[in-house]
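The freezer alarm interrupted the setup, so I double-checked each line after restarting. Inputs confirmed:
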Amino acid sequence: MKKSWKLLSVMMVVALFILAGCGNNGNNAGGSNAAAGEGGLAAIKERGKLQVGVKFDTKLFGLKDPSSGQVEGFDIDISKAIAKHILGDENAIELKEVTSKTRIPMLNNGEIDMVVATMTITEERKKEVDFSDVYFQAGQSLLVKKGSPVKGLADITKDSTVLGSKGSTSVKNIKEKVPGVTVLEFDNYQDAFTALKTGKGDALTTDDSILYGMAAQDPNYEVVGEPFTDEPYGIAVQKGNSEVVKAINDTLAELKSSGEYDKIYEKWIGKAPAK
Amino acid sequence: MQFSILTDYFGTYMEGFRGTILSSLLALAGSFLLGTLIAVFRISTARGLRWFGTGYVEFIRNIPLLLVVYIFYYGPSAFGLSLDGFTAGTIGLTVYTSAFIAEAIRAGIAAVPKGQTEAARSSGLTYVQAMIHVVLPQAIKLVIPPLGNQFINLIKNSSVLTIVAGLDLMYFADIVNSDTFRTFDTYVFVALFYLVLTLPLSYVMRVWERRLQR
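Predicted 3D structure, all chains:
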């Protein structure tokens, strides 16, 4: 009798695991089916609110001001313009925090309608999500402590330690550019920057746009060398959601032709966009 | 379920698995020694030692593990030192677990009848000798079940290393996840790797416990 109870409980655990696995597959399938309905344009209009995944920890692009609780940055201004275009009100928007690691799962779960979070368009990611036109042109660079012997990519060798953020393209790039280099990956850029400050690595690598934000935060650090990659940022939506992609692209085109884009760019980056 | 993730990234998983095992073994040995020492401090007749032991246990036990790890990762830079993620994480894990082990062992020592100490002392042993040769061997036997639980917790808690880039199983799993975008599948395999460590341990503990009860 005792034995059969044991067997039963083991079977229940196994069954639970299998169920959990099936449930997930079901969700995934539902997610892509629902793309047209759930995250689609009609659903956004019906809800009356645009749910956007943005960074909360990235200066200049998406940073939560701890005193006011407001999230501000380039990505937020672009998101507001999209909300205005779709819903006619730039404040009809709900900002949700994403990280490099969580943004694709959250998008595909239907928790957010779009990701506006310093996200580089890559072939690999295009298999998972659909991208809008390029809304910001960045390039990967290096941030070091002032006076560091590292003056550019040429000074990074396989004995160097480079810090980065998990799930970012910059980490893969640096491993390709400098085979054998030690890369330590952190959950977000703040942790990576703290690690740089406490001497855990020789340089921090990611897009220059983000590095300039860190350098603005702490004048003891500077961006060195020329950008060594081309990082076109795009806005991601669930796969097959062409209506929303079109709405975003229309918004971007409007912003560019009206000169509003240049204004937003200068407001955050401090210089006019390269033409 | 995509089993190809497991085969394609087996090397990556194994690298993390090794990190988790190594960190857990080091922390297990370290926290057992440190925890025993602190337990002896806690029941010591010397007031200073007793206060130190109590303070240590109450402080460490009542703050999050993550914070303990942060202290060892970011803290030393104030003194111009720097520990890597694996070292800082393993030390943090050791210190954190030792507080719980100290409590378990103290309870075990308290459960050894007072007559044992008195008999040992009156046959000429010093306090320390009585502890080492008479009381502790009996206490350890009593605390094996709770210790087993602490060691299982320790293995699971070692996932905290990922936050400080400690090259453990979770750290590499995050990398696999960012490569495959198959979040659920990636972490189900992680669960299997942890179970490979924890299930046999809890089985051994159960058998041991049953033998002691006989």
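Quick read of the result. Chain A is about 45% helix and 25% strand.
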